[in-house]
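User: Show me a protein chain along with its predicted structure.
Assistant: Here is one chain, sequence first, then structure tokens.
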Amino acid sequence: MEFIDLKAQQLQLTPKGFTLREDIEKRIKSVLDHGKYILGPEVSQLERELASYVGVKYCIGVSSGTDALLIALMALDIGPGDEVITTPFSFFSTVETILLLGARPVFVDIDELTYNIDPNQIEKAISKKTKAIVPVSLYGQPADFREINKIGNAYKIPIIEDGAQSFGSTHHKVKSCGLSTIGATSFFPSKPLGCYGDGGACFTNDEKLAVKMREISLHGQNKRYHHRKIGINGRLDTLQAAVLIGKLSIFDIEVVARMKIGDRYTEQFKKNGFKKVPFISPTNTSVYGQYTIQVDNRDKVIENMKSKGIPTSVHYPSLLPDQEALTNFNAKNKSLLKNLFSGKSFKIYSIDNAKKIAKKVLSLPMHPLLTVENQDLVINSLLESIR
């Protein structure tokens, strides 16, 4: 059984009647024919389609989800001495990009039901140095952006959504990545909308930020060989844009399938007395970027599932402030830290929920083509493994 089955996805029919693979191969051939491998017409087409899908004015295609976060932070002029409030429970790129700019991540706890940053914990962490808040829409559903935006507006602090796992979901009927000052997402192959390599995008309704983000992604250029600011090589390449245009054509169908499969998992688990299943806020929909449960004796459960041919994964076993890179950063940059912060490279407020949950989370096979038979195999195997 595949944890995520990208090969089977290629057999799906597109609205034009081709299989997805046939559609993508034709689009790749078109790129090979016109030869515009960097910033070809497919890139601008994809940006228009993605902006329309999310419901924002501007989309900038970029080279990865990590670069999407980095570019968003750079566009907000985040730099040395600044503080950025975020979650301790996420993939490393969420904090990596903050540290790369010389800023200091400030970690606050997560909601124990949704696993997303708890809005009630944010305000206490705000200081004069706070320049941004980066909530992560984890496992497929958005954080509570209605409440987070209220805080941001009150303190005039911009909000960046890390929507790498939630693209296609909604919060109060507004699409993920269109919920805040800037939305950033990833098109890594395993994401809800994935390409066949690295890719990402930034979204905003702010024209000035859109211009800055585009320039930053092009080495800071506003025209060829004229660099107005320091940027990066953060472009989305044309071949990946072609792949994404093809996959976007069936994405709505896949979102519905993901929701049905995720809901069925939950229904069947609850029916059999297992209740440590994902909680989806009534204000949200989820694309189940991961279907993540909680178990005791996780290592034993993983081995039992493996023996039955069921792949599992842990997202994430270690909290960000516990990562060796952060402790090494403190050890190797003492003089820098003294000048910037008079202390550590990060701050931690109470993160008890995150500590507890990181020891128990376990992700199960999840993709839009997961059959009922395979889903039942996963469910029955898990139930047997926890007995």
